Each structure stands twice: as C-alpha cells, then as structure tokens.
C-alpha cells in the first residue's frame, strides 16, 4: 500500500502533509503536490494532515490513474520537504470537483 495525492489538491496545494512526512516523498508541481509511490513507507501520517482531504490510500477503488500520475510527476517535479503557504486560490477551490480536467498543470513547482 502507498498513499496518493488526488485532484482535491489541485489549486489548493496545502503543505501540512510535507511537514509530517518522515521520508520526504512529496514532490511539488505548480498547483499541486504528488507522493512518490516507491518512496512512501505507508505510514499514513500525511493523510489526516491534509485540510483538503486530497491524500488517499491506494487501497481505495479507482485510484489507478492517480497512482500513475503521482509516479510520473514525482519523477519530474522537485522534492519538497518544508511547508509553504497554500495557494491564494485554496479556499475558493477546496472541495471543487473536476479539478484535474479544469486546472492541472504539468509545470514543476519550486521545491526546496
């Protein structure tokens, strides 16, 4: 089992999860984070820290595409190990549906 970041993170990018991760497996895109599934140790401490409820265990149904997206972009985006402020759009987009199709950016974030 591993944890994955889903579309709830897009245009929110809260980083509370990054602060508690013991193995630094979060990677930063322009408008979301991803977890490297091969680096995640399945401890689960990140899941309850996400204010947007964007982190899910891969044992939940229909997450295959999110596992693939997390793996792909963890290999392309810079590592993030310290918290940053959420995006200015976070409150407005928190809980919005269909964010992957509307807003996802392949652009990397700044990382540490």
SSE layout:
Elements: E1 3-5, H1 16-20, E2 26-28, E3 33-35, E4 55-57, H2 64-74, H3 90-93, H4 99-103
Which properties best describe this structure?
alpha+beta, two-stranded antiparallel sheet, 4 strands
Order of helices and strands: EHEEEHHH
Q: Could you tell me the strand content as a percent range?
A: 5-15%
Mean pLDDT: 96
Q: How many discrete structural domains?
A: 1
The gyration radius over C-alpha positions equals 12 Å
C-alpha geometry: globular
State the end-to-end distance: 27 Å
Note the main sheet.
2 strands, antiparallel
Number of strands: 4
Give the name of the CATH architecture: 2-Layer Sandwich
CATH-defined topology: Alpha-Beta Plaits
**CATH C-level class:** Alpha Beta
Oligomer: single chain
Count of helical stretches: 4
Spatial strand sequence of the major β-sheet = 1-4
Task: Describe the protein.
The chain is of the alpha+beta class. It is 22% helix and 11% strand. The chain contains four helices and four strands, in the order βαβββααα. The chain has helices at residues 16-20, 64-74, 90-93, 99-103, and strands spanning 3-5, 26-28, 33-35, 55-57. The strands form two sheets. Strands 1-4 form a two-stranded antiparallel ribbon. Strands 2-3 form a two-stranded antiparallel ribbon. The protein is globular. The mean pLDDT is 96.
Summarize it:
With 112 residues, this protein is α+β, with helices and mostly antiparallel strands. It has helices spanning 16-20, 64-74, 90-93, 99-103, and strands at 3-5, 26-28, 33-35, 55-57. A hairpin with a 4-residue loop joins strand 2 (26-28) and strand 3 (33-35).
């Amino acid at each position: 089992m591993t944890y994955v970041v889903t579309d709830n993170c897009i245009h929110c990018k809260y980083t509370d999860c990054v602060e508690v991760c013991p193995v630094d497996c979060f990677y930063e895109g322009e408008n979301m984070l991803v977890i490297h599934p091969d680096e995640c140790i399945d401890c689960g401490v990140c899941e309850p820290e996400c204010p947007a409820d964007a982190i899910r265990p891969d044992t939940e149904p229909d997450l295959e595409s999110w596992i693939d997206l997390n793996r792909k972009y963890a290999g392309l985006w810079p590592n993030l190990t310290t918290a940053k402020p959420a995006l200015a759009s976070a409150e407005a987009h928190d809980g919005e549906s269909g964010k992957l199709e509307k807003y996802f950016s392949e652009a990397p974030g700044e990382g540490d």
